[in-house]
Amino acid sequence: MRTESGAGHDLRHHGDAEVRGDGAALVDLAVNVRAGTPPAWLREVVAGSLDGLAAYPDGRAARAAVAARHGLPADRVLLTAGAAEAFVLLARALKVRRPVVVHPQFTEPEAALRDAGHTVDRVLLREADGFRLDPSAVPRDADLVVIGNPTNPTSVLHPAAAIAALARPGRYLVVDEAFMDAVPGEREALAGRTDVPGLVVLRSLTKTWGLAGLRIGYVLAAPEVVAELERAQPLWPVSTPALAAAEACVGPRALAEAARAAHRIAADRAHLVAGLGEFAAAGLRVAGPAEGPFVLVRLPGAAAVRHRLRALGYAVRRGDTFPGLDEEWLRLAVRDRGTADGFLRALREALRAPAPGTGASG
Length: 362
Prior knowledge:
By secondary structure, this protein is an alpha/beta fold. Helices cover about 35% and strands about 15% of the residues. The protein has eleven helices and 13 strands.
């Protein structure tokens, strides 16, 4: 691991850029939203909320439902317009001197901090260490530390104890658990913990439930931190349909469905990783063990392969916009086995294609 200060990456590039415009018809392995969502019952809940659009949003019921889901009092919950809003609130509302972001990870936290005028230090996890966290690598004087678990894009699931070891008086420990509900049993989750000083957990409901266009997430933190973030929010930040979705997505039916989906994702991921093993001779390596609904792969000439895959009908996420990675990295969303098999056939063809400017001699 090493510490780095500075930008140098396109922190605003996200997977949806791969499937906009002429990419809309591609098979999407670039965006980490679960395929086939939102389910019909959730669409009905959202549609049913539309009769209340004339009234201002009232988030009390949704807030109470989220709190109950994690066994917390409601004053430890803040509903947000997706996790992205939460990162902006943290950057603008909290008074910190030395924020540190553990990379490779989702780049929006660092972008939000920089936009708010902060100088951000990076702790870069290394491939040689399996992109695993060593708490001692984080500077002791860091008063805000951001880490994802499981981490996007590496798919590493850090032990809860290792992350909790980063906590200390005078430090905010921000853990992005946007993909934790895709982990069977949500093992290593810190959501709901009240014994870790300075802990701030972010959750998103957009990934598992296909609500990226609705924007709904939440923060779990000490009441004084929630109050500080809430003061930085505009009035009525979460829409009535999003509130209805939030309340539904933390209910018993939804939690049971999410648990089943997590086991399917784990099986589908194992199938994809096994198929990728065919390409080891071409230099392909899978970072791992992967525990999220996506896998990170290293492949020589990955940038050219990504373009060939587009021509073959598949969109994958470039990795070089993540600090700590370069052009040899790609992120692949986990999909069903049929989709994965089609992708593996396309990858086989893409790797057989000659490099630009070369060809067979006659």
